[in-house]
Design a protein that fits this description.
Elements: H1 3-39, H2 47-62, H3 77-99, H4 104-124, H5 126-129, H6 143-146, H7 150-176, H8 178-188, H9 190-195, H10 200-226, H11 236-249, H12 254-278, H13 284-305
Helix pairs in contact: 1-7, 1-10, 1-11, 1-12, 2-3, 2-4, 2-10, 3-10, 8-10, 11-12, 11-13, 12-13
Length: 325
């Protein structure tokens, strides 16, 4: 193999692993949103805030001490990721206790407000979060063994995929259990579920907290791969992207949520690359806005052509319509 061909292949592998790590982190977050919306009907429009909470928690606990910041405890990355899940779970618990007994629109308003507040706190609490300059020197696991090149990218991709598989397997077991069936019953008819003795509020709260924990884990996976986070990484457009992933993939189906994350992220990356190549340098800012428009067009097409997404939730046919029924 020639040196040029080897270099080209290495470049493609490096970019591919870079792309797949981002998509995998978003897939973990989309699984959390699918549990909340696809299984329980909880409308969370503050996904970016929960991701930010997870990312900043793990980053601040694992970065080395710095004289200009209050945090920087140098904890292991695994502990930081677990702490990210714990803090986002507590945030989800607080939001759920305050809002889940109210009408559904209150949850949407509250989660959006929480996301905006967290973004503002990250932007202004400079002694803790670094303010607009963000948090740097976030440790990257396995780097001591694999170095900083392609080997580490592939190693971290394997770690991210392992976390995604664990999350998927756990959610699949929960979805097939009586707990998962109750969630669907609460989503379809909360009054009927309550009349059967199910405490709908408790199940909704459990679903919201668990989904929030997965969003925090996705944020931590993102932070430790990039090595640097700032408030601008968690703008409301991120929530739009995650919702697009769920809609395109298919809500109510964990495999659809994962597939949607990879498809939409691929579409987003390709659209960005094409626009940067076609649009003059002076118009690049406007071209970036066109990416959002293109995602909106993709969502509209999916709602028209495949309303349930690429792999939507399977709806059981009535017994009278089943073979032999």
């Amino acid at each position: 193999m020639s040196a040029d061909l080897a270099g080209t292949l290495g470049g493609w592998l490096s970019y591919g692993s870079f792309f797949l790590v981002f998509a995998t982190a978003f897939a973990i977050v989309t699984l959390g949103l699918n549990l909340q919306w696809g299984y329980t009907g909880l409308f969370n429009v503050g996904v970016a805030g929960f991701m930010a909470m997870g990312a900043y928690t793990s980053a601040l606990l694992t970065t080395p001490a710095a004289p200009d910041r209050l945090a920087g405890l140098g904890w292991p990355v695994a502990v930081g990721m677990l702490a990210a899940m714990a803090t986002t779970g507590l945030l989800g618990l607080l939001v759920g206790v305050l809002t889940l007994r109210m009408r559904d629109d209150y949850l949407a308003i509250t989660t959006f407000g929480i996301a905006v507040v967290l973004q503002l706190v990250a932007n202004n609490a400079t002694p803790l979060t670094g303010g607009p300059f963000g948090v740097q020197f976030i440790p990257k696991p396995l780097q001591g063994w694999l170095g900083t090149g392609l080997a580490w990218n592939l190693g971290y991709l394997a770690l991210a995929v392992a976390l995604l598989v664990l999350a998927y397997a756990g959610l699949q077991r929960l979805a097939a259990s009586p707990w998962g069936r109750v969630l669907r019953a609460v989503r379809e008819d909360e009054g009927a579920a309550t009349s059967l003795g199910k405490r709908a509020h408790v199940f909704r709260l459990q679903s919201f907290v668990l989904g929030s924990m997965l969003m925090g884990l996705g944020g931590a996976v993102y932070a430790h791969f990039v090595g640097y986070i700032a408030p601008e990484d968690f703008l409301p457009i991120l929530t739009f992207q995650i919702w697009a992933m769920l809609i395109v993939g298919g809500s109510g189906n964990h495999r659809g949520a994962i597939l949607g994350a990879y498809v939409v992220w691929c579409f987003w990356a390709l659209a960005g690359g094409l626009l940067r190549g076609w649009v003059p340098q002076a118009e690049q800012a406007r071209a970036a806005a066109l990416q959002v428009v293109l995602i909106g067009v993709l969502i509209a097409l999916m709602l028209v052509l495949r309303p349930r997404g690429l792999i939507g939730e399977r709806i059981a046919a009535p017994a009278s319509r089943r073979p032999g029924g």
